[in-house]
Amino acid sequence: MSYCIIGAGMAGLAAARRVLEIGAQVTIFERMDQLGGTWIYTDEVGVDRYGLPVHTSMYRGLRTNLPKEVMGYPDFPIPAQRDSYIVSDDILSFLRLYADRYHIKDCIKFEHHVVQVHPTDGERWIVEVENLADHQKEQHVFDYLFICNGHYHTPNVPTVNGSEIFQGQQLHSHDYRCTEHYKDKAVLVIGAGPSGMDIALELAKTARRVTISHHMERLTFPFPSNLSQQSDVSMLTETGAKFTNGSEESFDVVLYCTGFRYNFPFLGADCGIEVQDNHVQPLYKHCININHPTMAFIGLPFYVCAAQMMDLQVRFCLAYLTGRQHLPPAHEMLEDAAQEFEDRLQRGYKKRHAHMMGPEQGRYYDDLAKTAQIETIPLVMTKLHNESSQRFVDDLIHFRKDVFRIVDDEYFEYVKE
């Protein structure tokens, strides 16, 4: 059987390793010239040398906001070093080690851009690809398709009144690369999620002043003297912004840290997948395409132990694709997805949170494992992920000084100085 994998980032590598393990044929199409996906740094913004949108959102000097102890694959941890919060280059090196260990590189066709995907009558997949180096288009047919193109590549830019008249610079965090470009400037950061907070703290080192606009409860940890917070933006003006609390400030730069959208431009309408308000549907257990069950998405859920979850999702899908387990009828899978989504709404989630896991991620892992009768993720991973996420909220300035050690499948401990 032949498997096509779109993307050679963390998810694509997880998929390739497990497919190779069962002895099947694997072809990975990767539009960049190296593996690593979102962990690759480039100074490029906008479009690349082939005229395609730059894929990566990586900025210079990024350190992980999760401890390395929860970022490895189940049986392939990130190599030991004292720090728990490590630089992006170390993650990229780790992914290269993983690819070497499982002989994945030979399966990757670099600088191959997937143009479109369509199903055949027999539930196989026609994949049209452009070889970017020689501008030639090719068509391939595969039995199974794993979509692993990530979800930190297509900016979600909100509509803000007055954005067309603001005379300063406006950009999304996708195009942010380093603090030097903002030296001595007044910067408005819209959004106080992990990236917004991290970038705002970095900018405060060189910018004249930085203001974070958000609608969460007021942040209480100590800020640098030139970093302040504001309510939501009501409108931009020619020289700055007005806020919903009635105040007004001037700015040179507006930086939107407002997240990303799931985007699969290569999927034809006949693939049976829709994205509505960032809800990818209809999917069974957030990964199998219910309309065409020989297609699966790896890595959609967020606020998770990513590599651990991706490996689990791949093993879940392969239990069915190899025939070891049998999928329920389509109507039962649709009912399961609808019930899970309704449960989220009842708990206060919005539609755009359809794939958000967070503190409840363990329920998802255990459900996948129980459903497909496979091994779940050790409880310690969920516990440490949740603990470190809370530390991020409680002490944004210092949380990266924490060092953790996994004790066993259930417990972790703080490493003292």
TrEMBL record:
Its cofactor is FAD. The keyword NADP applies. Transmembrane segments: none annotated. Its EC number is 1.-.-.-. InterPro entries: FAD/NAD-bd_sf, Flavin_mOase, Flavin_mOase-like, FMO-like. It is an enzyme of class 1 (oxidoreductase). Keywords: FAD, Flavoprotein, Monooxygenase, NADP, Oxidoreductase. GO terms for molecular function: flavin adenine dinucleotide binding; N,N-dimethylaniline monooxygenase activity; NADP binding. Belongs to the FMO family. PANTHER family: DIMETHYLANILINE MONOOXYGENASE. This is Flavin-containing monooxygenase. It comes from Anopheles arabiensis (Mosquito).
